[in-house]
Amino acid sequence: MPDTRKEALRLMRVFSAFAVAFGAQLAAWGAPTSATAQPVDWSVLKADLEARIGQHEGVVGLAVIDLSNGETLSIRGDERFPTASTIKMAVLVELFTQIERGRISLGDPLTLLKVDQVGGSGILQHFDTPLQLTVKDAATFMINQSDNTATNLIVDKLGIRAINERMDSLGYPGTKLWAKVSRSRQTSINPDSSRVWGLGVTTPMENARIFASIYKGEMVSQEASRRMIAMARTQASGRHEIPRYLPPGVVVAHKTGEVSATRNDCGIVYANRPRGSNIFDPPNPGMRDYVICVYTNENEDRSWVPVDNTAEVLIGDLSKIVWDALEPAAASAAR
């Protein structure tokens, strides 16, 4: 008859060794990476960006925030620029603030009337009226399609002054909405500023900080921040600006804005993730997420060529310069 005690000890040693090995494998599969992103020579990056900006016929402001450590880069980042439709992110922030406080619900009904329809970007201007929508519908159109009619429906629900007061309270005093879209004459709260800045005004660094706060889950709440990111990820326009020259598959949560002399884009660029993970999981070792905001004004090229407006090409070039500097691990992996 075998020695049962010795056999039991042998089996326990085998099981213990298996458990250690299996636990190590699980950790390798599922543990978040703690690898530090590679250092950046910010002075070289700034010089490269300035060299490209120097080739452009127009005024350019840029802000970059490294989301792994909070380091920033600014080129005219604290100067004021017309927002065009990038101000719609400030509208979205106030919307989710009021939702969080129980004043508004995403399911609240909105009725679109003929008088509400305005031109420019968006598709609601072409719908038959009256049309029943929800707040969620209008907010989605506002960001996904940059829909001007939807934006005005949301602004009517919130109030222009409430949006600006929210920006002040959050520490973004340079970010202002002056009027409803294409309704400046009737609705502007500051006609002189409307004449200078159009729809709204901000600085590249302030808008970069807004996106950084959303990224960290600190804007309104973590749930609200994630909803805002989800909307900004699905923006249908803007593939010719920040994402233009980035590698295929790179996720960008951003908001563009453009009028004839102004082309802007601002948002979060997400580094590559391990297969099977999502953007809220840590990036690949050695990589980092970051915010980039590029604002332009007084552009010589005011054309609406679908692909090759020089300001849109500029934004794409600047975005690629930043990517190459901040994501050297991606370049190494590609070789």
Quick recap:
The protein is of the alpha+beta class and 335 residues long. It is built from 12 helices and 10 strands.
Q: CA-to-CA gap between the ends?
A: 62 Å
- CATH-level-2 architecture of the largest domain: 3-Layer(aba) Sandwich
CATH class of the largest domain: Alpha Beta
Which stretches are poorly predicted, pLDDT < 50 over at least 5 residues?
4-9, 14-34
Major sheet details: 5 strands, antiparallel
Estimate the mean pLDDT confidence. Answer: 89
Please work out how many helical segments DSSP would assign.
Answer: 12
Helix proportion: 40-55%
SSE order in H/E notation?
A: HHEEEHEEHHHEHHEHHEEEHH
Instruction: Domain count, please report it.
Output: 2
* Shape estimate: globular
Strand order, sheet with most strands: 2-1-10-9-8
- Strand proportion: 15-25%
CATH names the topology of the largest domain as Beta-lactamase
In total, how many beta strands? 10
Q: What structural class do helix, strand and pairing data support?
A: alpha+beta
CA-atom Rg in angstroms: 24 Å
What does this structure look like?
This protein is α+β, with helices and mostly antiparallel strands and 335 residues long. It folds into 2 domains: 38-79 and 203-335, 3-Layer(aba) Sandwich (Beta-lactamase), CATH 3.40.710.10; 83-201, DD-peptidase/beta-lactamase superfamily (Beta-lactamase), CATH 3.40.710.10. The chain contains 12 helices and 10 strands. Strands 2-1-10-9-8 form a 5-stranded antiparallel sheet, with helices on both faces. It has a 3-stranded antiparallel sheet with strand order 3-7-6. A hairpin with a 2-residue loop joins strand 8 and strand 9. Helix 2 packs antiparallel against helix 11, helix 3 crosses helix 6 and helix 4 packs across helix 5. The longest helix has 27 residues, at 4-30. It is globular. Residues 4-9 and 14-34 have low confidence and may be disordered.
